[in-house]
Amino acid sequence: MDRYPDAYEPRLGPLRPVVSEVFGKFLQCGILERGFARVRCDHCAHEYLVAFSCKGRWFCPSCHQRKVLQTAAHLVDHILLPVPHRHVVLALPKPLRPLFRRDRNLLRCRCTVAQQTLTQLLRTALGLPRGRPAFLLTLHTFGEYLDFHPHIHALVAEGLLDSEGQWHPAPEIPHGILESVFRDRIFAELLRLHRISPQLVERMRGWKHTGFNVDATRSVPPENRAEREALCQYILRNPFSAAKITLEQPGDVVIYRSRLNPKIHRNFEVFAAEDFLAALSQHIPDRGAQMIRYYGLYSNKSRGCRSRANPAAKVAWPKGSPPPPAKLPARKWRDLIRQAWHTDPLQCPECGKAMRFIALIEEPVAIEKILRHLNLWCGPATFAPARSPPPPRGRDEESESPSSAPSGDDPAPLHDGEFLIETSPMPDYENVLTD
């Protein structure tokens, strides 16, 4: 953090306060010294500890993965309509990306442009100027090798709902039209905000490849629940994966592996340790930033009114697939762990019986006592505060008061808080035999 202003701020922009906060919480994630839960098997008395997590979003791979699984299941079971959905990706050219890195408010404007683009094209294709779309957007800032690559993943229902509650399926939108409309709206918004010049816009329009990248080739049918959930997990994924990180010693060199990049003809990127942390800091969202946005029938207002107006009631559920229940229980911690790591955290590894939580340990004194008993304590030693010196006494009181020293040759051990300190007797230099 101390080197960031001089080494990275000219290239990556100023250090945001949220970066230090997220890094600090991530370093405490899964640390037993910060608190834990005790899990015990009543059958064989086997017990283990579960450390508290940082509950970080869009950074901690472990904590965010649980939220990915929970949110993806919620989308499939409660939000997505039983109609085909198309996965749309909208990316920006490299010359414009630094603008969005230095001004995060532009990321929100880009979501608005994407919403206007998709709504306009669907209404034009079906001839329904008042048709209501249904889609959600997720905002990503990371590329394959952690470079700053702002792009949008959209999950779009292929159709519109008219004012009478009738669903109209939409044809596939041509790739060239989608890219052209998105490009024109981005240029218009940046010109309105005075972030680019008209000369740059004209120059970029004259390029053979403007750098705007649009992909809308994947469509998911409604009856394939597993594919729908997998797609939701993909667009909600964490900016980086711990499985792709390798730390090489000596030298603290980080190797980040991913898919083969045809442009650079390799499947990895090499970072110095500090450069790797600086690259990760770019993808931490600001406090309160909305990374998932719902529009049309998927908006909070529409879903809140659905129980009264129920505009999607005439959209029939596909044959052969039963509709979801009106209300599903929340995904529990056990189910999320089982789905993410393919193991049951509440099944005893010794006898196979069910385990249960017996206590949540949060007090520092109790944490240290339990971890020291299990030889798991890695924190600093805790000493009782020093005692104040005895009050001064007069010479007469000192002569009359009995000696406080214990009787015998060896002094008694001193107790300092929880630790027993053995003191060695003073050497008798007068009776030492010398040559």
Written overview of the protein:
- The structure is a single chain.
- The protein is of the alpha+beta class and 435 residues long.
- Among the domains are: 72 residues, no CATH class; 195 residues, Replication Protein E1, Chain: A (3-Layer(aba) Sandwich), CATH 3.40.1310.
- Helices cover 33% and strands 20% of the residues.
- The chain is built from 14 helices and 15 strands.
- The strands form 5 sheets. The chain has a 5-stranded antiparallel beta sheet with strand order 8-3-5-4-12, sandwiched between helices. Strands 2-1-13 form a 3-stranded antiparallel beta sheet. Strands 9-10-11 form a 3-stranded antiparallel beta sheet.
- A hairpin with a 2-residue loop joins strand 14 and strand 15.
- Helix 4 packs across helix 9, helix 4 crosses helix 12 and helix 6 crosses helix 7.
- The protein is globular, with a radius of gyration of 32 Å.
- The C terminus is likely disordered.
Secondary structure blueprint with pairings:
Blueprint (H helix, E strand, L loop, with lengths): L3 H4 L1 H4 L4 H11 L8 E6 L5 E5 L9 H19 L5 E7 L5 H6 L2 H22 L7 E9 L5 E10 L1 E3 L5 E3 L5 H18 L5 H8 L7 E8 L4 H11 L9 E4 L4 E9 L4 E7 H9 L10 E5 L3 H6 L27 H9 L13 E7 L2 H10 L21 H6 L13 E3 L2 E3 L14
Antiparallel strand pairs: 1-2, 1-13, 3-5, 3-8, 4-5, 4-12, 6-7, 9-10, 10-11, 14-15
